[in-house]
Structure formats: structure tokens, C-alpha cells
Amino acid sequence: MNQASTPLVFSEGKTFNYLIPLLFCGIASAISFVLFFPLGIILAVTCVLLGSIESGLEFDAEKMEFRKFQSLFGFKWGNWRKINHPDSFHLYLSIENNSYNTPMLTAPAFYGSGPTVKSKSITYNVAVYTKRDEKIVIYEFSSYKMALSFMNHLRALTSYEVVDHIALKMQENQQKRMNRRR
């Protein structure tokens, strides 16, 4: 069987995309154990299932299709998307900063808003540019090593241009440092 006919599978493992429902389920399970034991058991099993969900990417280079999948005990689900007229594949670094105010739990509301919580999300985005100048983000990897592995597989399986903008930027920065030392 041709290697390109089977989809590439990149599993990131347990990414805890369902962390908030998992926490609420855990709290409800703890309360239910005290009030109604059978419901507590059902919620505890649900918590285990939510914590066991894995996510990843499947890519079929022959058909030019991909899907972001969720997996539970080997059963995968997700919608396949076709890439029409691909031109090139690119790897980018994406940094998102979020800040939001949290309510103060110890003082009344008239004392002002609570402290500001800041979060930073770093992902390594693999995108495809089509001949119609569309940019389609295929997947947002949490690991540069896994994103680079995916790009290397793309380079080996397809004849399209594959560009690693992160490596190019690192080379540029290294060249600037070398020029400053002179």
C-alpha cells in the first residue's frame, strides 16, 4: 500500500480542551456523592471520560483533506475538510495575550473591580495558502517539535512549497546578533 494513501495522524494527546466542563462535573460529582450516590457515580464516570479525550490532526496528502479530531479510547470524530488548489504550506508562531478582570471575592463590589488576570497562549500554526489567495489554518500545534515533524512529512509527501517562518526568523535574528558582534 502506498504510504501517501493512509492519512498522517498527529495526536497531541490529552490537551484538556474540556477542562472547564471537567471541573464543573467534578464539583457536581462530589456534591452528588453526598446527596444522591448513583448520580455521583454517573458524574464521576463522565469526569473520567472528559479527562480521557485526546485531540490531534489527520492529514491525507493524496486527497488533500484534513480534519481536526477528538478521540476517546481510539474512536475518532471530526469533519474532513478539502483543500482546493493548494499553493504552499506555512508554519507560523502565534501568540495571543488575554486579560480580564476577576470579581473580588472578599470585598463588596463598590470597592472596585478585582485584579486583572493575564494569560498568554503560544501556538504553532500550520496554514495552507491556496491559488485563490485564501489562508486556511490547518492546525494549531502546542509543540514546535510536532509542528515541525508535520511540515517535514508534508515536504516528503507533496511537491508543494513548505515554508517554516519560525526557522527563517531565528536565522535572521542569529545573523543580526553576529553582525552586532563585529
| CA-atom Rg in angstroms | 22 Å
Shape: extended
Written as H for each helix and E for each strand, in order along the chain, the element string is EHHEEEEEEEHEH
Note the total helix count: 4
Total strand count, please? 9
Low-confidence segments, given as residue ranges, are none
Report strand %.
Answer: 35-45%
Q: What's the number of structural domains?
A: 1
Average pLDDT across residues? 83
Largest sheet: 5 strands, antiparallel
Please explain how this structure is put together.
Keywords: Membrane, Transmembrane, Transmembrane helix. The chain crosses the membrane at residues 20-53. The chain has one domain (3-17, 53-181). The chain is 35% helix and 37% strand. The chain contains 4 helices and 9 strands, in the order βααβββββββαβα. The protein has helices at 19-35, 37-52, 144-157, 165-181, and strands at residues 8-13, 54-60, 65-72, 75-77, 81-82, 86-101, 116-130, 135-141, 161-164. Strands 1, 2, 3, 4 and 5 form a 5-stranded antiparallel beta sheet that branches. It has a 4-stranded mixed beta sheet with strand order 8-7-6-9. Strand 7 and strand 8 form a beta hairpin.
